[in-house]
Amino acid sequence: MDVAIIGTGYVGLTTGVCLALLGHEVRCHDVDPGRMDKLARGRPPIYEPGMEQAMRAAARKRSLHFVSELADAVRGAKAVFLSVGTPSLPDGDIDLSYLEAAARQIAPLLAPFTTVVVKSTVTVGSCRRLEQIIRDVRGAGDFAVAANPEFLREGSAIDDFMHPDRIIIGSDDERATTTLKELYGPLVARTDAPVLVTSAENAEMVKHAANAFLAMKIGFINEVADLCERAGADVTTVAKGIGLDQRIGPAFLQAGPGFGGSCFPKDARAFAATGRRNGVPQSLVETLIEGNDRRKTALARRIAFKANLRKGAVVAVLGVAFKAATDDVRESPALAFIPALQDQGFVVRAFDPQAMPTAAKELPDVNWCSDAYEAATGADAVVILTDWKNFTELDLGRLSERMKGSTLFDFRNILQPEAVAACGMTYFGVGRAGLPGDKRQYVEKRAVAAAN
Ligand SMILES: NC(=O)c1ccc[n+]([C@@H]2O[C@H](COP(=O)([O-])OP(=O)(O)OC[C@H]3O[C@@H](n4cnc5c(N)ncnc54)[C@H](O)[C@@H]3O)[C@@H](O)[C@H]2O)c1
Ligand SMILES: O=c1ccn([C@@H]2O[C@H](COP(=O)(O)OP(=O)(O)O[C@H]3O[C@H](CO)[C@@H](O)[C@H](O)[C@H]3O)[C@@H](O)[C@H]2O)c(=O)[nH]1
């Protein structure tokens, strides 16, 4: 099928590449000329594992094209995907203006009959609004707007797109639903993914409610972690025990420094704003947002207390991306955590395998380092903030030798406390093994290790 993709960020690019690999003829367009230039040279403008290879594979099939002129992208397309950003407004609601602008721009260019597919995450009622904008330009009858929310995660975008848990098609126009079923046909044939055909409103609501629910699982386990820490339990085991209940499941129960990224914080705010706008406050989600925001700075104060850091102390932060396997720092815990360290008068040295160029624009006065060991050099404390696999493989002895102090905060619970203690460091995880008891425990273990 002939497909156009408008907006080639994480979602648009992944959608375009994957649809091309599934056998469709795809033309991608973006307003950002720098992005288009990179794409035309076969270079992904974002760090996403497997993307460059997937782009090469699609290019070999001659089914993926990057087109600078919007009209050339849209002309003749049977489905036009809108995958532009939907950022937060100051009141938490989404800013629909990028989608509205894109709808206005494509409206005169659509061939009859075209399905305009809203891939961006939108609040309930947005597709109707976009439909009205296009209708104002070209009248009714030869197009339909369908909601088709995307559930991929950054860092595993291609795999998630190619192996969806479900495909949601939101439209009451039969021509649109037929087009989308045909489009996803090859994917459904390969994966047997369930397809839910429903109204646009239901589809829009599914996306926001799903993200709010997943974010609530994380917010919940983070509060449980804090309780574990005080009450002498270990959240990693507690989460395992909870997750073994099939009704709960093990996913999204990793305690950490709070959820970040371009989706959960923004989408939780939008869901809460939708509740307020409709006179049905979503109090659980409101509380979740507040707690998650507070957590990021509270952890910065907590380390000062636990490691007894004074003004001028040096803190090494390992990881600034909002999660592993991405260069994205949007609403990353690091963007709140590092300034909160600096506010206390600490000097911050930091390293991230991919996200330093993007983070440097947001975080002034950080000493960026070429690896974890350089970051740890002369540090009073080291903090692991992102769950990069490289950090699970650190040479802890080497890290410890480089440090001035001896405290390691593992805010992703990715290290073995015993291994850290064996290298002469005091270990603090998130909600692990009960504090201050575990501090004594690991200090004691360290003493034993040293004696041996
Ligand atoms: N990032 C994710 O993991 C993810 C997953 C699912 C859904 N979403 C949703 O998908 C949408 C896009 O997210 P993203 O992370 O890909 O955003 P992004 O910021 O990475 O990309 C958006 C792109 O749209 C382009 N753009 C803006 N206006 C345009 C226009 N009028 N014409 C052409 N291009 C235009 C921008 O230049 C940018 O390259 C958002 O609504 C987001 O909530 C994101
Ligand atoms: O157990 C967990 C799982 C995640 N996180 C954090 O939560 C945030 C989001 O992580 P993740 O969901 O893996 O990344 P995203 O790429 O933001 O993907 C989410 O947001 C996308 C945009 O809407 C959706 O498409 C995905 O389904 C949804 O998982 C990150 O800060 C993670 O570190 C935790 O702290 N603990």
UniProtKB/TrEMBL annotation:
Pathway assignment: Nucleotide-sugar biosynthesis; UDP-alpha-D-glucuronate biosynthesis; UDP-alpha-D-glucuronate from UDP-alpha-D-glucose: step 1/1
Pfam families for the chain: UDPG_MGDP_dh, UDPG_MGDP_dh_C, UDPG_MGDP_dh_N
Enzyme Commission number: 1.1.1.22
Reactions catalysed: UDP-alpha-D-glucose + 2 NAD(+) + H2O = UDP-alpha-D-glucuronate + 2 NADH + 3 H(+)
Coiled coil: none
UniProt KW Electron transport keyword: no
Statement: the UniProt record of this protein carries the keyword NAD: yes
Domain UDP-glucose/GDP-mannose dehydrogenase C-terminal: 316-417
One of the record's GO molecular function terms: UDP-glucose 6-dehydrogenase activity
Enzyme category, top tier: oxidoreductase
Keywords: NAD, Oxidoreductase
InterPro entries, per the entry: 6-PGluconate_DH-like_C_sf (IPR008927), NAD(P)-bd_dom_sf (IPR036291), UDP-Glc/GDP-Man (IPR017476), UDP-Glc/GDP-Man_DH_C (IPR014027), UDP-Glc/GDP-Man_DH_C_sf (IPR036220), UDP-Glc/GDP-Man_DH_dimer (IPR014026), UDP-Glc/GDP-Man_DH_N (IPR001732), UDPglc_DH_bac (IPR028357)
Family statement: Belongs to the UDP-glucose/GDP-mannose dehydrogenase family.
Protein's name in the database: UDP-glucose 6-dehydrogenase
Lineage, uppermost ranks: Bacteria, Pseudomonadati, Pseudomonadota, Alphaproteobacteria, Hyphomicrobiales
Gene: rkpK
